[in-house]
Amino acid sequence: MWGAGIYAHDSYFKAPIFIGSDFTILICIVPLSIVTFLRARKRQSVEYNIRSFGVLGLLLYYSASLAFGVTYNSLHLVYIALFSVCFFSVGVMFVKLHSVGVRQEKVCSYHFTKGMKAFLLVAGIALFVAWLPDIITSIAGGTSIELIEVYTTEITYVLDMGIISPLMFLTYYLIKHESFIGYVLLRMIFKVCMSVGIMLPIQSVFQLLAGISIPIPALITKVLIFVMLAVFAAFFEYRLKRETEYAEGII
């Protein structure tokens, strides 16, 4: 059984997930991106560069999922272009923000709370808890991952366990050593976690509408955990943004 439309060559199980992701990006993330980029261009401040970096990081995650996770279709060149633009934009913005931290010894002051510390550690571990058992089970049984279907790999596993989780631990280390780029990465991580917490329930709704039955344990480990992390991420992002004070001469 297969998907439909642009995802006609994707599996019946995965197609609703991709549609749910697209719906979330179009309804929530695209408007947020437009507003953020327009304000950043108008105000030219470090704060809005940080916000732009967070949005670009999120779009890079999404574009990588499309370019490497979706079965080849007529939009493949669009996926490649989106991934390329996001990849180099993130790189340029990272260098720009890193240079700010190099020029200015103390760019901003903020309180890295125990809750934020716990969040990074718990979230970093949670990504392994959510995905690693599937891989271990398949390796131990000598079989492919359940529901791998027509795909060569599960891109979410690669991104979450190979990049996002290590980045959380690295961010913790950088902030403990008072690195400004650690603060920048922390803001981006909060934004990505909030977006994933919105996206997963929407994906599940599209799957249910497609007639796919989702076991309760799967909902808990692969949806509820990330929704809870998103709630905490939203709280910490709001608190961090409100309490941050930039050094004199830096807006």
Structure description:
The chain has 251 residues and is mainly alpha-helical. The protein has one domain (5-246). Helices cover 75% and strands 2% of the residues. It contains seven helices and two strands. The chain has helices at 15-43, 46-69, 76-103, 114-141, 155-176, 180-209, 216-243, and strands at residues 108-109, 245-246. A two-stranded antiparallel ribbon has the order 1-2. Helix 5 (155-176) packs antiparallel against helix 6 and helix 6 packs antiparallel against helix 7.
Layout of strands and helices, then pairs:
Elements: H1 15-43, H2 46-69, H3 76-103, E1 108-109, H4 114-141, H5 155-176, H6 180-209, H7 216-243, E2 245-246
Antiparallel strand pairs: 1-2
Question: Can you give keywords for this protein?
Answer:
single chain; 251 residues; mainly alpha; two-stranded antiparallel sheet
What does this entry show, briefly?
This protein is mainly alpha-helical.
Number of strands: 2
Helicity level, as a percent range?
over 70%
Q: What is the CA-atom radius of gyration, in angstroms?
A: 19 Å
**Looking across the biggest beta sheet, what order are the strands in?**
1-2
Q: Which spans of ≥5 residues are poorly predicted at pLDDT below 50?
A: none
Number of domains: 1
The tally of helices reads 7
